[in-house]
Amino acid sequence: MVLAVAMVMPQQAMGKDFGNETLNYEVVYHWGMIWKHAADATLSLRTTKDGYKAQLTGKTRSWADKVYPVRDTLKCTMNNKLQPLLYEKLTHEKDYYARDVVKFSYNYSHTKAHCTRYRKSGTTTIDLSAKTQAYDMLSVFYMLRNLDYDELSRNKNYTTVIFSGKEKEYLTINYKGVETIKMRNGSKRKAHCITFRFTQKGGKQSSDNLTAWMSTEADRIPLLLVGKLPVGEVKCYYSGK
Hints:
241 residues, mainly beta, 2 helices, globular, disordered N terminus
């Protein structure tokens, strides 16, 4: 039986108090014997009077800029229960520019969102809804950092809802347990391993699968993310604060 993630979250684990933080990452392209540091990313969180503001920025390194320059930014405003209120995705990849804005609202246990997509060709809007708590691609990681992993069963699927700027996706996570991983600097860390699968209504896969490793320490820092590509894979290593 597939359960919603929210159904297994102990009430005392919700609304974890995060402090201000800045986490840095190295994005490495891996294919066979090739390991190339292709980009850098920074994940920052700032406390506000009513909750949090998070931001993820990514940019390619100078050598990669000559091939395919990327400057992407994700922004999210959350309340003190880590529920998203506003999500913004800014995309600048070579000659492509785009901006998505998702405004969340809540009616009891239902989540609604008004999404606006800005493109050179024009602006479009869509309204999305879910009968449970929904997230965006940034706030979902703070929800995952806030889980009580002792309550999760290994190799069992849990689902939640993701609102992008254009559609409702279903995120299925599978908890693999605690693993020892090797960081890029050669050190070894213990981490909770989670796989991600994104699908649309009807079960059609909408995005490539991801695997993430969260620190077993109290801060639950994302230590490593791995995404498959048509050729090779991308590995995002935590490099420090």
